[in-house]
């Protein structure tokens, strides 16, 4: 079989995610894992710890990933794709290294990796690749021969990621009282990163200020706003804003913050807003706390009606998109040119991050890129 439904050379899919605590005792060790050598002020860490304690010390991200695993397995089974799906995290159990050890022992030799992060950037891409390299090195040090890992391309502009978000915005708009609906702003929001990290995101010279990170988010915002206009006939004003900033105050990060933006909307007479978390794949803590708790409280204080639209989560169209990305890459690894699904004007992202893509402050080995020691 050498058709576009053939997963060869891949013999497994690895869902690679951030990880999160599953109870109060996990919170501090989890935050220590996340922030090791990252210079985040203690005050910020205490504050973020409180966000988790507010939810019983449980991050929603793990259940979101379990739901996505179920959706992927169902989608694969429904399409006669006989490929096991594993799950490993960068910062909490099931840890990436343990999952990769399990995969090694099960005899897997070539693994496609789906990261739960849709865009370019150090935090959203290279850091995942560094952790893959760390896991491979750890297993090699145990005398094992881990499989080769290939990270599937960025899917920010894949219709299986964008379409569910469009529907989410339409549903949130429909929930707003009719007399304020037409004037509602769309506040597209994503994780802030240091401006220096944004500027160097993606292949050098391919992107302007803000780099691939800002450009890719602006493209998704434009696509969603355009589809909403086509559907409703109403041109909702929109902006790209940021959330979840950490780090020292003197270091510039992408702005404006969602809460400052809500203040501006209020001050300039906007009647309502829909917060659209395009930067996140599922409803994890950044969405539940920073948007649903903090920004929603800010809006209430201002008397500004707001809604928060859905993330893709375990939407079956997203699961189908993952299958599409995997089969597209598999074909390409076999030397066959498969169609690369992408909405808008940026085109399908690269398979292999080029050398120097999304550079780290401290250079470390990263797997699954042109500069990988494990190609
Ligand atoms: C771009 C980006 C994404 C989106 C892409 C992706 O999804 O990967 C993302 C996702 C997430 N970030 C998460 C949690 C945290 N991120 C932190 C810190 C940081 N994130 C950053 C960036 C991003 N982060 C950055 C530049 C820092 C500063 C420190 C550093 O340079 O590394 C900290 C430390 C405390 C704080 O400062 O907030 C925590 C606890 C969780 C899990 C949530 C849950 O438990 O449900 C998820 C999904
Ligand atoms: Fe983060």
From TrEMBL:
Q: In which pathway does it act?
A: Porphyrin-containing compound metabolism; protoheme biosynthesis
Reaction catalysed by this enzyme: Fe-coproporphyrin III + 2 H(+) = coproporphyrin III + Fe(2+)
Could you confirm whether the keyword Metal-binding appears in this record?
yes
What's its EC?
Answer: 4.99.1.9
Cite the binding residues for Fe(2+): 191, 286
> Where is this chain's protein located in or outside the cell?
Cytoplasm
InterPro entries given in the database record: Ferrochelatase, Ferrochelatase_C, Ferrochelatase_N
| Example of a GO cellular component annotation carried by this entry | cytoplasm
Q: Which domain of life is it from?
A: Bacteria
Q: Which SUPFAM superfamilies match?
A: Chelatase
* Keyword presence, Iron: yes
Residues reported in the UniProt entry to bind Fe-coproporphyrin III = 59, 128
Enzyme class name: lyase
Q: Report the GO molecular function annotations.
A: ferrochelatase activity; metal ion binding
Write the record's keywords in alphabetical order, separated by commas. Cytoplasm, Heme biosynthesis, Iron, Lyase, Metal-binding, Porphyrin biosynthesis
GO terms (BP aspect) = heme biosynthetic process
| Function according to Swiss-Prot or TrEMBL | Involved in coproporphyrin-dependent heme b biosynthesis. Catalyzes the insertion of ferrous iron into coproporphyrin III to form Fe-coproporphyrin III.
Q: Which family does it belong to?
A: Belongs to the ferrochelatase family.
The protein's name: Coproporphyrin III ferrochelatase
Q: From which source organism is this entry?
A: Streptomyces genisteinicus
Tell me the gene name. Answer: cpfC
């Amino acid at each position: 079989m050498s058709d576009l439904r053939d997963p060869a050379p891949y013999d497994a899919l690895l869902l690679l995610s951030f990880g999160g605590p599953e109870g109060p005792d996990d919170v501090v060790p989890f935050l220590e894992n996340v922030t090791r050598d990252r210079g985040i002020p203690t005050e910020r860490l205490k504050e973020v710890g409180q966000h988790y304690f507010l939810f019983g010390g449980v991050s929603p991200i793990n259940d979101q990933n379990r739901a996505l695993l179920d959706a992927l397995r169902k989608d694969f089974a429904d399409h006669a794709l006989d490929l096991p799906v594993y799950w490993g995290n960068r910062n909490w159990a099931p840890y990436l290294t343990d999952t990769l050890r399990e995969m090694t022992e099960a005899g897997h030799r070539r693994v496609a990796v789906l990261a739960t992060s849709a865009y370019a950037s150090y935090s959203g891409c290279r850091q995942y690749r560094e952790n893959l390299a760390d896991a491979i090195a750890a297993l090699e040090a145990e005398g094992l021969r881990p499989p080769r890992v290939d990270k599937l391309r960025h899917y920010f502009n894949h219709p299986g990621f964008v379409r569910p978000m469009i529907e989410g915005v339409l549903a949130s708009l429909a929930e707003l009282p009719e007399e304020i609906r037409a004037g509602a702003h769309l506040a597209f929001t994503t994780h802030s990163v240091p401006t220096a990290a944004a500027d160097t995101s993606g292949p050098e010279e391919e992107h302007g200020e803000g780099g691939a990170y800002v450009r890719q988010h602006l493209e998704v915002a434009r696509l969603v706003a355009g589809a909403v206009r086509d559907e409703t006939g109403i041109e909702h004003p929109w902006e790209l804003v940021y959330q979840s900033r950490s780090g020292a105050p003197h270091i510039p990060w992408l702005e404006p913050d969602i809460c400052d933006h809500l203040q501006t909307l209020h001050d300039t007479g906007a009647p309502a807003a829909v917060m659209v978390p395009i930067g996140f794949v599922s409803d994890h803590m950044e969405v539940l706390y920073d948007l649903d708790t903090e920004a929603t409280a800010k809006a209430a204080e201002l008397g500004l009606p707001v809604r928060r639209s859905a993330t893709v989560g375990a939407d079956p169209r997203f699961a189908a998109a993952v299958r599409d990305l995997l089969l597209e890459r598999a074909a390409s690894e076999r030397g066959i040119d498969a169609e690369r699904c992408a909405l808008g004007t940026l085109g399908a992202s690269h398979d292999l991050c080029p050398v120097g893509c999304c550079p780290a402050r401290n250079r470390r080995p990263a797997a699954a890129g042109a500069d990988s020691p494990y190609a």
